[in-house]
Amino acid sequence: MGLLNGKVAIITGAGNGLGAAYARAFGAEGAKVLVNDLGGARDGSGGSIGPAQQVVDDITAAGGEAVANGNDVSTMEGGQAIFDQAMKQWGRVDILVNNAGILRDETFHKGSEANWDLVMKVHLKGTYCCTKPVFEWMRANGGGTIVNTSSTSGLLGNFGQSNYGAAKGGIYGLTRVLAIEGRKYGIKVMCMSPSALTRMTEDLPRYRELAEAEDGFPVAGLPDTIAQSMVYMCSDLCGMDKSGKVMHVGRPGIAELKVVRSDGWEPDYAYSAQDIADREAQIFFPD
Fold first, then answer.
1. Is 207 a catalytic residue?
2. CATH number at residue 218
3. pTM over cut 0.85
4. Share of the chain residues as helix, strand and coil, in percent rounded to the nearest 5
């Protein structure tokens, strides 16, 4: 018996890379999968439903059940249409994986408003648009699982990715809030922070060097391997006590990422700026 037998899953950005690996793994575990993808380049340009349909064909050829969807995740109309298609096809939604994304990398001082807006629209607003109808349905129908995609670029920072990092940081914040709001309705909301070799990362120097190494790219960072972590997060193996958590998965392995607070200093008087400077060792973590 598959870990996701009888579940209905929506996966956005599932025509290539990680999303396609998730969709195939879900199909193999018994889920019915709506494969959403615009079919564009990694910067969001162009597009056709062809890649999504190819993934659907792969799933059905292996004995699974899936349908393709080419709606735009970054609009409320698109998010609603994605949900509506799953409901029309199968009558329920048990899992939503918000994976769709684009890259428009540029240093902040050279960056354009247009690229900022587009990256925010696809990543952060796209997560909102797809989650809104699903979350409302799950809230009224016994719960479900939502996994959003964040990144170390948003949680830790990365040179040249101010637009991407800001969007991914926003997705982390949204995840934390939805985990709190959804808990009493049985909605588990988590974040995946993947580090994978895909068309989104293949030309980045550190990824290219690993891919070209004698041993090849670490297996832990390949999409089919990472997909097993997504299966875990969306299955009953992963309980409600994990809601709100962020799993970093890929190279070099699997770990939880979280915001932590130092022991700090608790003043009992109206302190000065100099008092803060005098107690920096108590307030800040060491570098």
1. no
2. 3.40.50.720
3. yes
4. 45, 15, 40
pLDDT tens digits in sequence order for the chain, 287 residues long: 699 999 999 999 999 999 999 999 999 999 999 999 997 665 555 567 999 999 999 999 999 999 999 999 999 999 999 999 999 999 999 999 999 999 898 998 999 999 999 999 999 999 999 999 999 999 999 999 999 999 988 888 889 999 999 999 999 999 999 999 999 999 999 999 998 655 555 555 555 554 455 555 566 778 899 999 999 999 999 999 999 999 999 877 899 999 999 999 999 999 999 999 999 999 999 98
Smallest CA-to-CA distance from 23 within 70, 47, 57 is with 57
Q: Is residue 104 part of a domain?
A: yes
Q: Which of 164, 185, 232, 269 is catalytic?
A: 164
* Structural domain total, the chain: 1
Is there a domain that residue 92 lies in? yes
Cis peptide before 252 (omega within 30 of 0): yes
Evaluate whether residue 1 is within a structural domain: no
Distances (CA, A) of 44 to 101, 119, 223, 247: 8, 9, 20, 26
User: What is the residue range of 233's domain?
Assistant: 8-260
Cα–Cα distance measured from residue 197 to residue 177, given in angstroms and rounded to the nearest whole number: 30
Task: Of 207, 134, 119, give the one whose Cα is nearest residue 171.
Answer: 119
Query: Is residue 266 in a domain?
Result: no
Q: CB of 18 within 8 A of CB of 229? A: no
Q: At residue 195, what is the residue type?
A: S
